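Fold this complex.
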Amino acid sequence: MLRSYEGTRYISDKQVIVLDIGSAYTKYGYAGETAPRGIINTEIKCPESRELRKIYSYKDEDDLYQLLVEFLHMIFFKCVVISPKDIKIVILESPLIPSKFRNTLAKVLFRHFEVGSLMVLPIHLVTISTLGVDTLLVLDVGYQEATLIPVFEGVPILKAWQALPLASKAVHESITREMKTILSETESTEKLIENIKVRTCFVTTMERSLKLETDNPFKPPPDVKYYTTRTFEIPGSVREKAFEVLWQRDNDNLSVPTMILDSIIKCPVDTRTQLAENILLIGGTVMAKGFASRLKTELLYLLNSELYKEKLKIKTFKFHTAPSKPNYTAWLGGAIFGSVDLPSRCITKENYLELNRVPDWVNLIDNRKDEASNTI
Amino acid sequence: MAYLFQIDCVRYACSCGSLKSIAKIYFCRHCLSIRCGYCVCHEVDSYYCSNCLENPPASEVRLKKYKCSNCFDCPCCFETLSIRSGQVLVKSLHTTQEESKPVTKKIYYLSCTLCRWSSRDAGIPDQTVATGSWREQESPNTYRITALINFYKILGSIEKQQKERKKFQSKRIFLQFEKFGITSTMARKRVGQLPLLQSNTQSDQPQPSEASEEIEELSQDIFTKSIDITKITTLDQRLQHPELQVENINELRPQRKQFIVKRSQRCRFCEHTVSKPDYCPTSTKFKIQLAAFYHVPELRIVACEPLRLGYSSELLLKFCNPTQHQTQIILLSMDTPMMPTTTTLQGIKEEINRENVQMGCDSPNLLPSAVRQAIVVEEGRQVNIVINAEVILPSSSFILPPRDDAAEYDDPSDSQNSQDDPKLVVWRKGNKAIIRLDVIPYVDKDKMVKDEPIVVGLAMQYGYINTIATLEHKAPQKLDLKVKLFLTLGNLVHNIL
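Structure:
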């Protein structure tokens, strides 16, 4: 039944499912494709209480197990429409994910769905494959938190990791606070707030931002009429201020731009220039209008500030553009990596059932120095 | 079958521990136990389009990327688009003829009947054929990504060759974190080495991405230009097409409709199918449907006296035998062992091992047990239900006659079973019987949560005739099976004294 040359590739291989289960959205699709098949909310209707629940709102491991069973069942039979038994799955995860979550996920996949093999890939590392480079500083601003791990010549510099709860969720909270007078509590659902953010809000310039809190700010952008069950106006100041929470430095002087600088400081001196000139922004929040340009101005401003002047001698920052939208760049990395046949990097069903654990970088057993080390 | 408003008053305990109503459970005839959607293995049986009901074979579905080639979803409201036809006057191009008569030509466009989106509004040219000519949007990055994939595939095969050479040295099972990994061993290995030489510079290595200092600045007119919210797409509309995620409503393009699947379900323990739908998408019938409703006696609550703490209330339960065989029902307490038993010719009760049952029931189309994959055992679910009332179990058993469809239309004959205990059985007709029980809610006040419905639990033993002809037992085997039941009776009535 081969129709085209392109088709031969798809037919000859066994299909590999790539899943990126984020805290707000799950990206799913097949390895070797250029974009995910779909991006859906990471939530499922609980079969017993019949309420919509986020997967990450789990109470304990048993609860998470049930939620994941329901959620993955929907993914397999409604989204990717494939029998999960004995297939290969690529899971993208942040290296900072709770062990409880990844262990339960592996248990669900192997014990309940009986998948054939599982490849767990760290998000920041696989992202390099979307660019074809070896050295990259990856900043992932998602829903729950912003995380950063630099990768140098294919090796993640784990000690320079950064994570701050400055992401979508913080932005949503700030919008909800600002809109309190306009929207009642029942009206301001996360869905609506998110749509207001995506459709009307933007990241303002640093110059304007500095004047926002002073007595004579710039003229705010025009208000926007928004229609739901009723019509209301979104003030221009709300649109402009929405993302400010990401740039305001907290009591420890931390914000999104300082994450990059702090991480570079923690890296060895000879890697710093290269990392600063290879920055990639991923995650849904970086798609906000003006995010990248604001980040760049903030970075250059901080370089000349007292805090970093002495420590860092970097002059320029350069940014990469991935061949994808930032909110699924990590998925694309997994899709490229997953299309490569690397049986040795997978956890097979037999291995899992025998040992009952997933290798983890924090676990000493997986960090042993190998007597038969196979360096190339 | 399903109760009004789907309230699960009577729940059966599945062998995996889930509690479900009888309409939602299966009965595996081969391992003689109750299975549910949670503990069976789901498999995709066939694909079909929910709009045009096309069902291509599985190999073709994959080429079509699991999407229907003819049907489209509205990019605005995600409903199915309908194909509309219109007529347009086309001037003949042949100028050689003196009179170039305008010719009417049929043209087609897509339109949404719900939100009035149409392909004309979006600026998609009309098509001259109804199906098959609508163009898909190409991802702008396909070429680049294909180059990257091929490059990493080559890297993968190089690594494979190297592994092959060192096959006898490597003893580790998990190599996942090596080289591309994040273990400290890996980092240590790289320390002090020369920067990675580009030794593997293949001719087809794609150009690595160039970072640039220039970034798209925020356009200045965002501070002054007013926004019409109706022209900007919502997040759902953007995520419908992840590749482009367009911002303006008029850039939205219709998406091909995704196929949906018919599932078959297989018992995990004996690998026999418990449910298999008809292949044809227009049919709602099943080829195999081992629903518990056809094999296990059904229990319904008829009436229950108001429940008072510490006082006994009368509970009327209706039992119905769905099988073609007479069955004897004994109500037991919750803590009886659940193993199926049989009575031998000598009248001795013996337990049946699940393995024995399976062995005897091996049908020839299944793989021999040696080839079969090891059963992956999943932990059972905890029954988290609090029983807060005691039920006084009857000492005698009762018999339900087989189902007889014709009897439904007969006059009620007074073929009352004289063996019935009149205290227990209050009504009987055909294969149904109503029995009377007494329920006493616990007096234990501390444990009682206010307004928690009263739940009683009991085990039902029922006779089952195993009609699957096996090599060992030529005659149908008589078995006694048991199932745990949980009945939600409603809230307590507070005594006004």
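Confidence is low (pLDDT under 50) at residues 173-179, 355-370 of chain B.
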